[in-house]
Design brief:
Distance between the termini: 28 Å
Number of domains: 1
Number of strands: 6
CATH superfamily: SGNH hydrolase
Radius of gyration: 18 Å
Structural class: alpha/beta
Helix content: 40-55%
CATH class: Alpha Beta
CATH architecture: 3-Layer(aba) Sandwich
Number of helices: 8
Length: 256
């Protein structure tokens, strides 16, 4: 990879992580690390173009089948692919099949000729991460293999101790908050060989843990607002992304 390259176009594919949940804007939409990265790249390259095909709730097979062909045909010189975590967090999952579909997705995008970026997704500290850690690590091992095969850059967010801090996660405990997304954008920026603006993996200042009452209230709110609806979608075969279009489906000049 050419270090400090001047990218003229960027297309992002994936699920809610790349769509930008839960970096909320005042109008109710989401920004996220990919938008932040696009803004920074556009600031140094006149005429910079950006597309974001990611849609929340998508499984890796859907990403491969619905997003990667169109993304590759855009001919962008920078492409990011993050997917598979929605699959491995489900109760029943064939991780090897997930890895196979991830390979399909990476292969399609590599045909587009741009610099491919893959990620080892961050994990929030807690029992959920420990339960699914073996699946995640199997997926991430395949990501390293695909990177070697296609000359891709791997951004290792999973190894980040800072991004494991619950204070960088939204109330739904599944998505990063605004500061978490800002750090991911900086991590990708640096992985592309661009000059660092901050230490994206710097630990947060020490703080006293919340008391029992605050934790209990947060648990009740999480269950009511996030866990129960999630279970309902699983039981009925629905997804949060059903019928939802990509927020930037065409590779067009970036406007902040």
């Amino acid at each position: 990879m050419e270090m400090n390259a001047r990218y003229t176009s960027f297309v992002a594919v994936g699920d809610s992580f790349t769509e930008g949940m839960s970096d909320g804007l005042p109008d109710g939409s989401y920004r996220g690390w990919a938008d932040l990265l696009a803004a920074r790249l556009a600031a140094r390259t006149p005429g910079f173009r950006y597309a974001n095909l990611a849609v929340r709730g998508k499984l890796i097979g859907q990403i491969a089948d619905e997003q990667c062909g169109p993304a590759a045909s855009m001919g962008a010189d920078l492409v990011t692919l993050v997917g598979g975590l929605n699959d491995v967090l489900r109760p029943q999952c064939d991780v090897e099949q997930v890895c196979t579909r991830l390979a399909d997705a990476a292969g399609l995008l590599a045909k587009g000729g741009g610099q491919l970026v893959l990620m080892r997704s961050p994990g929030r500290r807690g029992p959920v991460l420990e339960r699914f850690r073996p699946r995640m690590e199997q997926l991430f091992a395949r990501i390293d293999e695909l990177a070697a095969q296609h000359g891709a850059v791997v951004v290792d967010l999973y190894a980040s101790r800072a991004l494991a801090d619950p204070r960088l996660w939204a109330d739904d405990r599944l998505h990063l908050n605004a500061e978490g997304h800002r750090r991911v954008a900086e991590a990708v920026w640096q992985a592309l060989g661009l000059d660092a603006e901050s230490d994206w993996d710097a630990p947060l200042p020490a703080a006293a843990p919340p008391g029992w009452g605050a934790r209990r209230a947060a648990d009740v709110r999480f269950a009511r607002e996030h866990l129960v609806p999630w279970i309902g979608r699983r039981l009925t075969g629905r997804s949060s992304g059903d019928g939802r279009p990509a927020k930037r489906p065409e590779l067009l000049p970036y406007e902040g």
